[in-house]
Structures are given as structure tokens and as C-alpha cells.
């Protein structure tokens, strides 16, 4: 179990007055593993459902829908970290953001694999041409496939040393792709639904709200800075 | 009484200096458990939609094996459990398992059917009387849903042609319009405006007179379950499933082509004809293949769902890409 030790530059006024403990104990021990295990619960339940027949008469389609929704929900949860910090000042959401993003990628990958099963990869009727044709011809598939492709570089650069290797600025720019991915995900879900658009609409609104909060708070802070001393304090 | 600030109380000071491993472990374990429950539970609530359980209905004419008729397919019949728990019937809800779960709210007796429009004499008839007009027969038909899945259904009922003739059409009758029950108490899904209610479907009269067009009152030799369209439904096996309207309360012969529910909802996606056609894709998916329920892979879709010999002549001279 790794416990995050605060860097010396990070010590705020509140902690400065307190006596320095011998062993700094993280307030958030258990949170990270909890996110990972909690995020894997649906996978275990899906396996259980497959065994008991609870996936219904068309299990491939059921898994397709479920992995897709899971991926989108986890992606939106990962996007909630920054606005939540901006609004509340909490730091714990940022600690679990990476795990949420990687779980979203895991379910997106399962979603693609189920799509390939649907196209017959297991029973031999699979043809790569059918898939290429599908991806190129149908905007609904194109958008979903693009979203998954764009998640790959983000997943690949989520290792501990990735930020250092890429440089903070480049890493941040790259990971801003996630805003685009979530928009593609919502559009993909919207197009995939035959008639009742309630759920894609809700996810779309939540995602839009989370993105709007960033803009509003960024705007708010820059105005505050501009109205203050004039020069920015951050190096 | 003045209270000491928390950092000056001995207990707090002690816990800051020498963390209690037991308390720490308990806290971590608590946080872990809470997080797993909150995230895992939340994700399950948002994404999991378990299937419904099948319920058998009383026998209508017994389960004895009967010889195949001229229109029957030899394809393996879809198990009753799957045919009755995987249904599109938006009157009960948009999830495939909703109809089986909600069907108990549908009361199929008493039930009357109004027969009107371009007929010599309009009438309203009780379902049991209507059923007694015709000898019931089996029809094992393939059913292809526009969504790309298919089943093999052992219907029990009577040919639509007999009913149309019995209605005694006038010379103006060119279309047959069917209307489903409108009742938000029995059909909770009708409280949502996902479609325009009541559900309306229609056929050209020559399509309705084709021997394949069928009115079902049973399934697998048993009474038709609510989720499958009890007590009376249309079955047109060469068209996508949504044409086969369920829980019919009115049949009207018309001179003009009626507006049908799905073609109102999305005219670019669901046409009036809705003939099964592997060459005309749905805008969002290919119709070239289908998944037979119970199978893992896909199989090629046949023109007119394999009934081209019986029905293709109905559409000679009609561009089926335009009239989809």
C-alpha cells in the first residue's frame, strides 16, 4: 500500500502550525483500492449473470449495452474530479481520476470486443472487411470507434513516469482529448438508441455541465486574478 | 466551561504523534468497503438490466405435435422462455425485459374488437366470438426484428384474409389499419411520449389478403402472453417485427394509406412497407445479417425474410429502396 507523502512545497497554512507526525498517515487509505475493486464489480456481476442466464435471450446485445454504459459513466466520473475540486476544494477526487479513466478504457475495450463477437469473431463468420465497412459507412459506429481509438493514447500515457517523459504541458494537452472522447461517446450512445433518448440525454447533460463548470471556474479565477494585483502569482 | 481546541487535547496529540495502527486499518477498511459499495452499486444501478422470468400460460389446444403446414419453417423453434422474455412492446416499457415484467397489468378478458371503416356494416365483436368464427391453426414463422435479431415463433390463430372477407369490404377499401389498446393503466409505457399512442399499423389490402398474413391468439399451443400481444395480434412474417401490431382493439378498412406509428416517429428509418430486405440498410446498421436468438454469430438475412416466393409478386414494379 503506497501512501502519498505531501511534497514540501505543498504544505498549506493549516498544516504548518501542527506538529509534524513521525509517520504521515494518508486520510485516503483504502479509497484507491476501493475504486478499482468497485469498478470491477460490474464485470464480476456480468460473468455471474452470464452463468445464470440473467443476461436474457440476447446476451451479446445485453453485454454490448452494459459495457458501453459502464464506460461512459466511468468516463464522466473521471471528468467530475476537477470540477468537484474547484467547487469544494476537496483533493480526493483527483487521486482517483486515473483509476476511473483506466476503468472506462477497460469497459470500452470490452465493448469493442463484444462488438467483434457480434460480428462473428468466435464462430468463424467474421470478416475484417465487414468491420471496416461498418466503421466507414455508419457514422454511429465511426464515432464510437474513434472514441475508443482516442482513449488508447490516454491509457498508454497513464503510467507514473509518463508525465515526466512527455513533459507536463504536452501530457496535459494530450489528456484534454478526453473532453472530445466523452462528447463522441454521448453522440455514439444517442445514435445507437432506437427511440427513447432519455439516458443518452442525461449523460450528455451531465457531461456538458461538468465541462461548463471548468470553463466557468477558469473564467472566474482569471477575472479574480485580473482584478487583483494584476500579475499572475503562479510561476 | 471552556473547551480546549482539539489540537491541545491529549488524546488528539497522542494520535497525531503515534498513529494507532488498528484504528488506521479500520478506517482504511471502512473507506475501502464504502468506496466499493458506492461505486460498484452505483455502476450496477445505472447499467444492469437483468432479464425477466418466463411464465407459462394455459394450453389452448394442447401440446400434441402436429404435422408441418405448407407455410411452416423447419427451423428450430425459439424456446418459449426466450420468446416470452425478450420482447419489444413499448406500451410496457422500452427495455426488452419490461414487457414480461409488466404484462400482468394487461387484462385480456373482456376484450372487444371494433371492425369498421369501408365495410358494409361496422360492428364491435367480443374476442371469444371473433375467435370462434375461424378454426385455429398453427403457423411456425420466422420473425425478423428491424434491430437485427430473429426468432422462430409457433403461432396459433387464423389467416387475416378470412377476417377481412368476413368484414365485407366496400369497393373503396384499399388499406387495413390496425389500432392497439390505449390505456395508461394497463400500458404504463404509454405514459411516456416515446411514441404517439395508440400504436397504429397498416397493410395494403392485397398484403392483408395474402395467405401468410395471420392473426395470432396463441403461442406454442398456449394462450398468447401479454408481452407477445394478447389477446389478438397481427403477424406478417415477411415484414420487420414492428409491423406485426399487438393487442389489437380496432381494425379499420380505409381508402387512403394510414399514418403508421413508427413511420411518424422516424420516417427516414421506418417506412410504411418495412419488408425484410438485406439490401436496404437501416441508416444506422446493416440489415444484411441477423442474430437468431440463442446463437452467438450472425446469419445472412433473406429477402422478404425467406418468404419471397409467396409475397414478392405483391411488389412487382415497386422500388423497394424508395418504398422501404
UniProtKB/TrEMBL annotation, chain A:
Keywords assigned: Cell membrane, Electron transport, Flavoprotein, FMN, Heme, Iron, Membrane, Metal-binding, Transmembrane, Transmembrane helix, Transport
Database matches in InterPro entries: Fe3_Rdtase_TM_dom, MsrQ-like
Entry keyword annotation includes Nucleotide-binding: no
Gene Ontology biological process terms in this record: protein repair
Segments forming domain Ferric oxidoreductase: 67-186
Region span, Disordered: 1-20
Cofactor detail note: Binds 1 heme b (iron(II)-protoporphyrin IX) group per subunit. Binds 1 FMN per subunit.
Transmembrane portions of the chain: 28-48, 68-87, 99-117, 137-156, 177-194, 200-217
Alphabetized GO MF terms: electron transfer activity; FMN binding; heme binding; metal ion binding; oxidoreductase activity, acting on diphenols and related substances as donors
Cofactor: heme b; FMN
Main location: membrane
Leader peptide range in chain numbering: none
Superkingdom of source: Bacteria
Biased composition (Polar residues): 1-13
GO cellular component, one term: plasma membrane
Compartment(s): Cell membrane; Membrane
Self-association and partners: Heterodimer of a catalytic subunit (MsrP) and a heme-binding subunit (MsrQ).
Family to which the UniProt record says this protein belongs: Belongs to the MsrQ family.
Functional description taken from the UniProt entry: Part of the MsrPQ system that repairs oxidized cell envelope proteins containing methionine sulfoxide residues (Met-O), using respiratory chain electrons. Thus protects these proteins from oxidative-stress damage caused by reactive species of oxygen and chlorine. MsrPQ is essential for the maintenance of envelope integrity under bleach stress, rescuing a wide series of structurally unrelated cell envelope proteins from methionine oxidation. MsrQ provides electrons for reduction to the reductase catalytic subunit MsrP, using the quinone pool of the respiratory chain.
Name the record gives this protein: Protein-methionine-sulfoxide reductase heme-binding subunit MsrQ
Natural source organism: Deinococcus psychrotolerans
Gene encoding the protein: msrQ
From TrEMBL, chain B:
GO biological process per UniProt: protein repair
Domain Oxidoreductase molybdopterin-binding stretches: 107-262
Basic and acidic residues bias spans: 13-23
Keyword Lipid metabolism among UniProt keywords: no
Residue numbers spanned by region Disordered: 1-23
E.C. number(s) listed in UniProt: 1.8.5.-
Xref: SUPFAM superfamilies: Oxidoreductase molybdopterin-binding domain
Domain of life where this protein originates: Bacteria
Enzymatic reactions: L-methionyl-[protein] + a quinone + H2O = L-methionyl-(R)-S-oxide-[protein] + a quinol; L-methionyl-[protein] + a quinone + H2O = L-methionyl-(S)-S-oxide-[protein] + a quinol
Keywords linked to the UniProt accession: Metal-binding, Molybdenum, Oxidoreductase, Signal
GO molecular function annotations of the record: metal ion binding; molybdopterin cofactor binding; oxidoreductase activity, acting on a sulfur group of donors, quinone or similar compound as acceptor
Processing after translation: Predicted to be exported by the Tat system. The position of the signal peptide cleavage has not been experimentally proven.
Cofactor binding description: Binds 1 Mo-molybdopterin (Mo-MPT) cofactor per subunit.
Cofactor: Mo-molybdopterin
Binding site for Mo-molybdopterin: 87, 90-91, 145, 180, 228, 233, 244-246
HAMAP family, sorted: MsrP
Quaternary structure, from the entry: Heterodimer of a catalytic subunit (MsrP) and a heme-binding subunit (MsrQ).
Role of this protein: Part of the MsrPQ system that repairs oxidized cell envelope proteins containing methionine sulfoxide residues (Met-O), using respiratory chain electrons. Thus protects these proteins from oxidative-stress damage caused by reactive species of oxygen and chlorine. MsrPQ is essential for the maintenance of envelope integrity under bleach stress, rescuing a wide series of structurally unrelated cell envelope proteins from methionine oxidation. The catalytic subunit MsrP is non-stereospecific, being able to reduce both (R-) and (S-) diastereoisomers of methionine sulfoxide.
Entry similarity comment: Belongs to the MsrP family.
Protein name: Protein-methionine-sulfoxide reductase catalytic subunit MsrP
